[in-house]
Design a protein that fits this description.
The complex is a heterodimer of chains A (142) and B (94). Chain A is α/β, with parallel strands linked by helices and 142 residues long. Chain A has one domain (5-134): 3-Layer(aba) Sandwich (Glutaredoxin), CATH 3.40.30. Chain A has helices spanning 5-17, 26-33, 49-62, 81-89, 123-138; strands at residues 21-22, 39-45, 71-76, 100-105, 108-113. A five-stranded mixed beta sheet of chain A has the order 1-3-2-4-5, sandwiched between helices. The termini of chain A are far apart. The longest helix of chain B is centred in the middle third of the chain and has 11 residues, at 57-67. Chain B has helices at 57-67, 89-92; strands spanning 5-6, 17-22, 26-36, 39-49, 73-79, 83-88. A six-stranded antiparallel beta sheet of chain B has the order 1-6-2-3-4-5. Chain B has a single domain (5-92), classed as SH3 type barrels. Classes of the chains: A alpha/beta (142), B alpha+beta (94). The A-B interface holds A 48, 50-51, 93-97, 112, 114-117, 119-120 and B 14-17, 65-71, 88-90.
Chain lengths: 142, 94
């Protein structure tokens, strides 16, 4: 059951303030990810305090790096259920978890960050892994 | 398998993805919920059975790390007597 919108509003705003575009419907997901060109990061947001509470600041830090995805979009697991399910179809080889992040290049997943790779780690540590992935997969596209 | 091993009584792993090794052939990977006198409560748990699986436990863990955990049990209680060790998945892979 989704949480009250007021409770999750700050978690949504944290994403949009760093430049992420929210996708709240399946149609919005298809428009953004379907036939996607260039580089993109899809952030699966979550109310989970122990993991998402570090994942969002980690992404904000990582986006200050020189190489970064051309687009950042976000769906909210447990809140925008249809949009999240649709987004996960684009990275169906990966088991769903939230928070998580998929790095796409021309629609193909080139890197995936699962919840278990975020749990218990500092935002700086997760950001370091993300920027390494940006350098590896996105550097030429910036 | 290296990494810090947590012992009974610790609840600091709540919500964390762990590898639970048993005294038998089975290894469980999933989110730790809690531990009490009955055993360890976990969620969204994948299972490796060394007696039946084609892939080694190490391959199973590496696949869990790369592609995530394919849950076979939404909720699982591993009896206390069966628990040999509990380690964070990220530590188990080091």
């Amino acid at each position: 059951m989704p949480y009250h919108p007021a409770l999750v509003a700050p978690m949504r705003e944290e994403m949009t303030h760093m430049g992420a575009r929210e996708l709240t419907t399946s149609a919005e997901v298809d428009a953004a990810i379907g036939d996607q060109k260039g580089t993109m990061l899809v952030f699966v947001n979550s109310v989970c305090g122990c993991a998402a509470g570090n994942a969002r600041p980690a992404l904000r830090l990582a986006l200050q790096h020189g190489s970064r995805p051309q687009q950042v979009v976000t769906v909210f697991a447990g809140q925008d259920v249809d949009a999240t399910a649709r987004a996960r179809q684009y990275f169906a080889d990966y088991q769903p978890s939230s928070p998580s992040m998929a790095l796409l290049r021309d629609g193909e997943v080139v890197h995936f960050v699962h919840r278990h790779q975020i749990e218990g780690r500092s935002p700086q540590s997760v950001a370091a892994d993300l920027t390494a992935a940006f350098d590896r997969h996105f550097a030429a596209a910036v | 398998m290296s990494g810090h091993v947590f012992h009974p009584g610790h609840q600091e792993l709540h919500g964390v993805t762990v590898v639970l090794e048993t005294h038998g052939a089975r290894t469980y990977v999933g989110r730790f919920d809690s531990q009490d006198e009955r055993g360890v409560h976990m969620h969204d748990v994948g299972v490796h059975d060394a007696a039946a699986a084609a892939a080694s436990k190490e391959e199973f863990l590496r696949r869990c790390d790369k592609f995530g955990i394919r849950p076979e049990h939404r909720d699982l209680l591993v009896p206390a007597d069966d628990v040999a060790s509990i380690t964070r998945l990220v530590d188990a892979l080091r």
